[in-house]
Task: structure prediction
Amino acid sequence: MLKYDLKYYDKTLRLNSKTAEYISKIRWGWLSDIPHKKVLDYGCGVGWFRAWRPQQTKVWSYDVGVCPQTGIDIQVYDVLCLWDVLEHIDDFSHLEPLLRLSNAVAGTMPLKPRGVKYTNWKHFKPGEHVHYWDMEELDAFIHPEFKRIKEGYPECPPREDILSFLYRRD
Result:
């Protein structure tokens, strides 16, 4: 199992900072279809998404790792962000209350192209990725109270097979 410790985050910061800025800006653009003054970045990693937030937006951050974070401390969020998170979580029960506190859900996840065997796929990472999703499973997980309003691949390139999604509460 991958360990999200200081060594992991130090390596992540050194290797990915320029790409992270580029991707964070794409993600903020992805949210332009919905109000986003109060945002929870769940699985925030080293905090890049929060670092490039629009001035009028307040971002709370939470991660299982050791990087600085604000925690979860308000009653309702405009958007719950799950950037590269769902494939890493083994127990989803703690996300249910967060879905109830959110008016929208945005995120990214690897989505295997049809016809590619899992074992030959770039994102097949046993011990790091504990779940692999398709759109039907994602729709069922997010909740019937939400409607998917957008999906696509705005982060590709530089990333490969990474789906972005946006749901809004009906």
